[in-house]
Amino acid sequence: MNTKAISLIYIIILLSISGVVNAKDFYWIGGSGNWNEIQHWSDQPGGQVNPDAAVPNFSDNVFFDENSFSITGAEVVINDVAKCANMDWSNVTNLPTLKADNDPAHFLTIYGGLKLGTDMLLDLLKPLYFSASTPNNEIDFAGHTFNEDIHFTKNGGWIIKTPLHVQNHIIYFEQGNLSFEADVTCAQIIADNPISRTWTLNNSTVNLTGSGASVLMINADNLNLNPGNSNVIASGVGASIAISGSVPLNLYNIEFQKNGARIINETLLVNFNNVEFMDGGSLQGPNRFQNLIFTKGNDYFIQNGYDQTILDSWTAIGTCSEHINLSGLGGNGSIIANAVSLEFLKINNMSASGAAAPFDANDSFDLGGNTNWNIIPLTPDNYSWTGATDNKWSTPSNWDKNCVPSRI
């Protein structure tokens, strides 16, 4: 190895050691102020201004504690590109506020973990970046709602230790190792960057509140997703789960609460445990379920060209006044099931196979184009008008059997 190469390695080692040695703890002092004001930073709790006359950098830990604010209502303003390693507000008192100025270039990047306190206010209104290169950084929002996007970047690791509520905004998981050990609420989660990622959901409940969008967008390539026994709840109208990539992916329980819900799979296969549509929806791409549930009074569309495989049971039970409409999309939809419980369906362009085939659909209507079904029509009956609710023919409660005579 030549002299120049040895010198370069020596310089790199010295710089690395210097970065570690120079990492410091900074304590906020003096009440209200801007992040970049030197007079608010000390090297000890409640101490004097730090002797190096500096503000924290990416390798420095920052603390806001009982010595930081002597009166109620103080503000700490992010008025620059603020950086730190770990940020800790857990011992703060007198209800200070963390906020940012109006310059979009001024935001906070945390290169370690975050621990907020209960005796403070969070009014940052800027994207928050977690950019660690070290593992197991804990994130604790202490019950505070965050009102902007959160980005997890670089190849570090983060653990969500307490419930995280990101109001009407997005969590971007771009790289690294992310573990949900508590419930998470946000509009969307986007994990579509095909860089090495590990995502562990454990037993968390993930509430996705966005409407008219892919509330969970995942690229399966280079992603190690451990779904655990998690529950993903999509509560918005037109919410979809969109999977891309070239490898299979596993999720656990999914619940769609509003109409227009979709599973859009553009990878090899997505495996689910239980999936329930509480309103209308559609299935696209190859999916495999332990259990799949469609609910009464709704429309469901199954994309042509791909199999929907149900390993345990497919349940679709309507009523005489709230049928389930089931249709192939772009041709015949295919469902493979080992067991079914089907009643009061209107079926069009659907193919059935698997251990349960031909599928028995009781009190149902064959609208044509169906293969390998045993569609059993409703037995004719007599109905008496009571008019118990209003004067409309189509109101089920106006009939003695709570069913409308004409149902096609």
Which helices and strands occur, and which strands form pairs?
Elements: H1 3-21, E1 25-28, E2 33-34, E3 41-42, E4 61-63, E5 75-78, E6 82-84, E7 87-88, E8 97-100, E9 108-110, E10 114-115, E11 121-123, E12 128-130, E13 137-140, E14 145-146, E15 150-152, E16 157-160, E17 164-166, E18 170-173, E19 176-180, E20 184-186, E21 188-191, E22 197-200, E23 205-208, E24 214-219, E25 223-226, E26 231-234, E27 240-244, E28 249-250, E29 253-256, E30 261-265, E31 270-277, E32 281-284, E33 287-294, E34 299-303, E35 307-317, E36 324-329, E37 333-337, E38 340-343, E39 345-348, E40 350-353, E41 359-362, E42 365-366, E43 373-375
Parallel strand pairs: 1-4, 2-5, 4-7, 5-8, 6-9, 7-10, 8-11, 9-12, 10-13, 12-15, 13-16, 14-17, 15-18, 16-19, 17-20, 18-21, 19-22, 20-23, 21-24, 22-25, 23-26, 24-27, 26-29, 27-30, 28-31, 29-31, 30-32, 31-33, 32-34, 33-35, 34-36, 35-37, 35-38, 36-39, 37-40, 38-41, 39-42, 41-43
Antiparallel strand pairs: 1-3
